[in-house]
Amino acid sequence: MANTADAIIDRRRLRRKLTFWRILALLIVALALILFYFSVAGSDAFSSRSSPHIAKVRIEGTIFENEELLKRLKDVTDSNAVRGVILSVDSPGGTTAGGEAIYEAVRKLAVKKPVVAQVGTLAASAGYMIASASDHIVARQSSIVGSIGVLFQYPDISQLLTKLGVKVETIKSSPLKAEPNFFNPASDEAKEMIHRMIIDSYDWFVGLVQERRKFTHEQALALADGSVFTGRQAIANKLIDELGGEDTAIAWLKTKGVNDKLPVVEWKPVEKSSLGLFFSNSATKMLARYLGLPEESAGMLNQLTGDRMFLDGLVSVWHVDGKPAGAQ
């Protein structure tokens, strides 16, 4: 019996050792594959970017002051291999400051190389602001363009706190300090202060559109009431220059001396955060499953819980929930 027990113990120890080495081997193989992938992807990207080409930069989703995107645009600007640039814009807008930063980066790029914006589904608010920084705007007939305007949003949870029996006391140096806040309805003076701020940014936005689209001030104002337009309407209103897709954008670059036979190389974001993105997407999918939603809803949850819900400061974004979004 003792020999049998010892044999069983030995077999268990052997199994544990084998399991450990198998897991270690799998981890080593996985790490090697990851390193190989990134080395090949990196070398391919470097090779394609080092020879003459047309650079394609995607500007998608909610607009923020994206440092990585700003650096990428600067790298495109400084690259001797880039002959022309296609901005692929598909955005509902975002923060006004983020749109301004990207707008300025595109204008610096356009000084050195011809830049054409090719609108996908949507270029609204700050998204249209960025598209207008290009030398030429191309959109589909059914693309959505426009929503020129600025808004400021803040929650008022004072009634909820009252129902919960919570009262927030505030002592401050002056009436408009830290206004508006979550805990009290905004005063008329606070609303007037916010309105002045919105109108100032709105005038600045309208001025950009007026300058870039060669409008009179009256023409720009007439189109800057927050309305959105289809591509067909936008070209009639001179908010865009041409209807079409990427081939139309390349044809325009050809008129600026860019060889239309050059390859179009997409300058993608740096992939160093791919694992973090994987875990982030996995967490969102788990949340979707927990809520009883299909995993395909994860992208929508990312939009609702991440990009669009927490936009600080002045915002130039097109809302599609059918609810009043704020001042235009």
TrEMBL record:
Keyword Protein biosynthesis: no
Database matches in InterPro entries: ClpP/crotonase-like_dom_sf (IPR029045), Pept_S49_SppA (IPR004635), Peptidase_S49 (IPR002142), S49_SppA_C (IPR047272)
NCBIfam families, per database record: SppA_dom
Keywords: Hydrolase, Membrane, Protease, Serine protease, Transmembrane, Transmembrane helix
GO biological process: proteolysis
Protein species of origin: Phyllobacterium pellucidum
Peptidase S49 domain mapped to chain residues: 109-255
Protein name, UniProt field: Signal peptide peptidase SppA
Highest taxon of source: Bacteria
UniProt keyword Hydrolase, yes or no: yes
Annotated GO MF terms: serine-type peptidase activity
Positions of transmembrane segments: 20-40
Family from the record: Belongs to the peptidase S49 family.
Record-linked SUPFAM superfamilies: ClpP/crotonase
